[in-house]
Amino acid sequence: EKAGFEHFMLKEIYEQPKAYRDTMMGRLSDDGRSVQLKEIGMTPDQIKSIRNVHIVACGTAYHAGLVGKSVIENLTRIPVETDVASEYRYRSPIITPETLVIVVSQSGETADTLAALREAKRCGARVLAITNVVGSSVSREADDVMITQAGPEIAVASTKAYTSQLIAFYLLGLYLADSLGTRDSEWIAEVLEAMQQLPEQVESLLSQSNVLKQVAESLAKHDNLFFIGRGTDFAVAQEGSLKLKEISYIHSEAYAAGELKHGTLALIEEGIPVIALITQEDLYEKTLSNIKEVKARGAHVLGIVNGGSEIEVGKSVDELFAIPKTLPLLTPALSVVPLQLIAYYASLARGNDVDKPRNLAKSVTVE
Ligand code: M6R
């Protein structure tokens, strides 16, 4: 059932190209230039009446929601807040009937996420669920349901569910932007064209797993490391850090690159590994200056860049890994893949039970 892979996690990482294709399938027009989401029952008038969006989820699904916030805000200019469900449900969030609440859950059974959904409905909000499991509690109780077609995810560490959630957010963001007229159809068609290249681009990333295995084996000798990034790179940094902690048990922190000098820089000392995500052209200069700050204190920096910027960034880092070139909006769907592989190989190098990390369950159905 592991189809020749040593672990479910590795199998699921390799299933991502298929998960991307399957999640897009049936959701594009015949000419591939626009998004159609038949599962969304909101009328154009209902979409126009959305005043704000709350995205609520736990763990990795929350990290997908952080990217979702940036996608929806960027494409529609509707204000979006992303919260962890265990905080949201107890902070008496301001939910009105004009709020669209998006809950994200691979399993559709996470207790806190389900409770947040119920709270949102009680306040009269419309709830849209992004989930991987048809018939799950979340899918039965939400008003609209987008199923991520990732297929069953067995490993505790979520991989293909996360990236399929990103695809769902891109499709949703484009759909809303089209309905609201905040983006023109030519621009939308260009993004969709780039999205359709993602599966092959993931395949090409996967073919470089040997390089990442070596990186992971040297990281596995450390007890602490940092991930840094800005914007969506920061969101992906948080997911990379969680993945690494969860299965390798190496302590790591993800920091918004610009926040370092407000405290965390004190922890940077000789030889400490820093993984810097630097895929957003408009933020290059800023992140590069943060990379210089950590390097000046002896950090060993691995830079993850969007294809084409190798020369520009290469001078400032110790090691470089380039993802295939894609639009800045879409880089999370590629840049997370090397981080998944680094976590996997670091866990392997440490002799851990990759698929069943200590203290954790696949689905958290109690508070
Ligand atoms: O099934 P869900 O998506 O609701 O699960 C949420 C989290 O428990 C889950 O993503 C967890 O963080 C993963 N083990 C991370 O890899």
From TrEMBL:
Top-rank taxon of the source lineage equals Bacteria
Q: How does it assemble?
A: Homodimer.
The protein's enzyme class: transferase
Its name, as the record gives it, is Glutamine--fructose-6-phosphate aminotransferase [isomerizing]
Q: Does the keyword Chloroplast apply?
A: no
Residues of the signal peptide: none
Biological role stated in the UniProt entry: Catalyzes the first step in hexosamine metabolism, converting fructose-6P into glucosamine-6P using glutamine as a nitrogen source.
